[in-house]
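Bench log. Compound arrived from synthesis this morning; before running ITC I wanted a structural hypothesis for how guanosine-5'-diphosphate sits in the protein. Inputs:
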Amino acid sequence: MTMVTNETVNNWVREMAEMTKPDEVVWIDGSDEQLEEIKKVALKTGEMIALNEEKLPGCLYYRTNPKDVARDEKRTLICTRKEEDAGPTNHWMAPVEMYAKLRKLFDGSMKGRVMYAIPFSMGVVGTDFAKYGVELTDSIYVVLSMAIMTRVGQPIIDKLNAGADFTKCLHSKAQVNEKEKYIVHFPEDNTIWSINSAYGGNVLLGKKCLALRIGSFLGRKEGWMAEHMLILKIEAPNGEKHYVCGAFPSACGKTNLAMLTPPDYFKKMGYKIQTVGDDISWLRVGDDGRLYAVNPENGFFGVAPGTNEKSNPNALKTTRKNTIFTNVARNLDDNTVWWEKLDKNPPENGEDWLGNPWNGKTSTEKGAHPNSRFTAPAENCPTIADEFFTGEGVPIDAIVFGGRRAKAEPLVYQSKSWDHGVFVGSAMTSETTAAAKGQVGVVRHDPMAMIPFCGYNMSDYFQHWIDMGKKMSDPPKIFHVNWFRTDEKDEFIWPGFGDNLRVLLWMLARCKGEADAVETPLGYEPRPEDIDTTDLDLDAEDLKKLLAIDKETWQDEIKGIEEFYSQFDKLPDEINEAFDALKKGVEAL
Ligand code: GDP
Ligand code: PGA
Ligand code: MN
Ligand code: MN
């Protein structure tokens, strides 16, 4: 391994080591040999467990503290010098104060442990999109997970030695102490400090912290966008290729849509779906006036429960080797893993996510935590697209916003323009899920699925979306979907998963001007007959229910949007105009 010769990097690492006082500092070179050695240490101390080498080669099991199983938004801060720059939707503290507080917590926090220095890249090293970082951590779980989720090692050291900018990331699992848990971003210093957590979303700092919070801040400054979006490639029977980005809040279906398996009928016709990304998109305007997206990650950090041979066979195959499973249940007979809805055969001789003996056949308790996760290399995915590996960006035809709403939101509608689409994104709502700490199933506003991830004032973020629209001569069309509408029996009406392709195909036809629609106060909606329901057990009545817009419900939605907007001092005129039009349209229903 070549030494790090960049003195800015070395001085910073020295300073952090003086504060956290590890026994030793070890640079990660990204080689399999070094990662194997480090893995052995975690297996020896019991921090991680090796799984069945025949059935799940290279796979590991990891368990976090029961109170530390999801992102913690209350403990996540954006520390800009001015409070208004973080905005009303972020937690904030003055950087001087926050640094002082954190320095006390980090003081000696790595005593008796090794500090690993992980040089990593978000995006393919050397491409226009790539951003580099170094994460310092005392957690082997973080080292092994970063090696899956990002590009790690020598090529990044070479970039740093050549003087590349980098994000300074510091993590210490310290005591895993609830009361002193902090995930803190200092966007103006390109710095992230995280302490007292071991849960992926809080500690794999390249992901939510860099690629979204710091990324969105940099994107605004530099004229690009960092978004909570999957990227999907659709190849039509005639060979035409289309790319779609989708922003849904955490645990609302991004990974599933990104790895969609077409229903047989469409497969036979020749439709193919490939995966470019499942969680994060970085977007730039190309010379041709279109919007181009890359997935800056190198792996998938996916929700395990609900993943099965029927719902998402591609995700399941992706996790069959070199994967880390967190907080799922274990089958002690054959040392494999299990989670709810994996199959109808839960282990009798099992261990639940808490490590307690668990009989899946008789127990009424869940075996896996609802936010249990797999961390798997993207290259394992049977549908991974070639474009993922070049990191050069794919031209986006459509952006899809979506939420989890039992009522109100119809299956799908198209916005009337880019600006109207920005309004639709800004007014997005969704029921909360287990992906973040707190109550589940509460409807909240989550603009562009970015409420937990926007690294600056959200009203400036809306303006940035409007401004990006002005830079494009051929912007993506913007849609809104809801796979989660329920009937009188509280059951999902729409079959979802692979069948979501039917809705995507209507969208693509709209992009090409080849499909009909009716104008509603929300935008353009398909008529029931515009959605291809061949082989589907769904009648026109069901589709009508899925597409219905109820006046009273929408009067309430409007109140909700008004209340949400009231926290912002200013909103782009384009948003106010679109909101006024919605109010008028709903009144006229
Ligand atoms: P992500 O966190 O946004 O990537 O969401 P996932 O794709 O991991 O899905 C989260 C949860 O929603 C899982 O339990 C899925 O089984 C479920 N889910 C995903 N897509 C659909 C869908 O189209 N319909 C229904 N009913 N559930 C879905
Ligand atoms: P998700 O990613 O969007 O796949 O749930 C993790 C998260 O948002 O915490
Ligand atoms: Mn996410
Ligand atoms: Mn996901």
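What the model suggests: The chain has a mean pLDDT of 97. The first strand starts at residue 24 and ends at 27.
ITC booked for Thursday regardless.
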